[in-house]
Amino acid sequence: MKKVLLSVLLIFTTLNIFAAKKSPYVTKLNDDDSLCITSGTVPDKKGILIIPEYIDDKAVTSIDSGAFANKKGIKEIVIPDTVKIIGKEAFKNCSDLTSITLGKNVKIIEDSAFESCRLTTVKLPYSLTTLGNRVFFGCYSLISITLPDSLFTMGESVFEDCSNLKTIKLSNNLTAIPDNTFTNCVNITEIKIPESITSIGKNAFDGCKISELTLPEALTTIGEEAFRGLLISNVVIPEGITAIEYRAFYNCFYLTTVKLPSKLVSIGNYAFAECKNIREINIPDTVTEIGEGAFRNCFKLTTVKLSSLITEIPYKCFEYCKALVSITIPDSVTFIDEKAFYECNALSEVNFGTSLTKIGDYAFYGARENAVVLPETVTSLGENVIKVDFD
């Protein structure tokens, strides 16, 4: 009898081990007694991964960090309504993955969850509140996506290097477009920025091909290189902006008109450099600082009005502004730095203020003959301030 019982027990144990080995998922228990899938295999020969709602009568509510990362053969994923959280790098580098169906209760998608997948379209649920950093980074096949109005928080680089992304609708409840959000999304030609946005991070639209840009009135921050290389022809910078950062509009080749806000305090280095078609710039009297090269290579710039509060015209500020005809230096300016107006070949009139004491090397080199008559207040003069030989 004992031998029979032992044999039955052995068979039962063997079957359980066999069943455990055949189970496609490994799980762990969450604090609320629900399950988190930590890893698994692809049970479907067609490459369809269907996450179950329940395992052993316990709800599956999360997918763990790296659970299916780097797995080949997953072409489609179906996430059930029970899942609320998709962890960091959960499906990162699933290079065969082209389609996902997200359950209606997913709230959080953590960092790099779908980074470097081959997704073409994604429908995000209206339960979603948070997207982590780099969630869709490098999904080069992604063509369109809508961010639901339930989304309040988005991390950095979410769509960076999504080179085929063409259509994007942003949540009306986002307050920030973080750093590198759409960097190198070279097929985005238009976008509507919601009125809720107060901050646009550095390189946010760097490399996009946007031709029209309307900035929301609530905007207070524009990051470095945020709009570098856009195809816009005009821009009105909202009144809440007090600083235009480094290369914010660098190389916006088609930009012809810029309206600066009345409370602007600073213009960063090379902020509008290489904007070769800007015709006129009116710098409000609230500005106390202009960065080096701020308007360098603005070839068609003909008219400049400087702030009455600046004390310095910095290095290469208007270098190669070849169409600039005249300039009035405010009384507040004490120093004109090296190459500030270098090779401004059309410059025929310079009206100096009463406080200027120092002019750097090559500051007006290339201006027209007799354009520069140095005031008596100047006590320090650099080399080759003007071109001496006009033959």
Write a structural description.
By secondary structure, the protein is mainly beta. The protein has one helix spanning 2-22; strands at 25-29, 35-40, 48-50, 54-55, 58-63, 76-78, 85-86, 99-101, 108-109, 121-123, 130-131, 144-146, 153-154, 167-169, 176-177, 199-200, 221-222, 234-236, 243-244, 257-259, 266-267, 280-282, 289-290, 303-305, 312-313, 326-328, 335-336, 349-351, 358-359, 380-381. Strands 1, 2, 4, 5, 7, 9, 11 and 13 form an eight-stranded mixed beta sheet that branches. The protein has a four-stranded parallel beta sheet with strand order 25-27-29-30, with no helix packed on it. The protein is elongated and about 90 Å long. The chain starts with a helix and ends in a 10-residue tail after the last strand.
Task: List the defining traits of the structure above.
391 residues; mainly beta; eight-stranded mixed β-sheet; four-stranded parallel β-sheet; 5% helix
List the helices and strands and how they pair.
Blueprint lengths: L1 H21 L2 E5 L5 E6 L7 E3 L3 E2 L2 E6 L12 E3 L6 E2 L12 E3 L6 E2 L11 E3 L6 E2 L12 E3 L6 E2 L12 E3 L6 E2 L21 E2 L20 E2 L11 E3 L6 E2 L12 E3 L6 E2 L12 E3 L6 E2 L12 E3 L6 E2 L12 E3 L6 E2 L12 E3 L6 E2 L20 E2 L10
Parallel strand pairs: 2-5, 3-6, 5-7, 6-8, 7-9, 9-11, 10-12, 11-13, 12-14, 15-16, 16-17, 18-20, 19-21, 21-23, 22-24, 25-27, 26-28, 27-29, 29-30
Antiparallel strand pairs: 1-2, 4-5
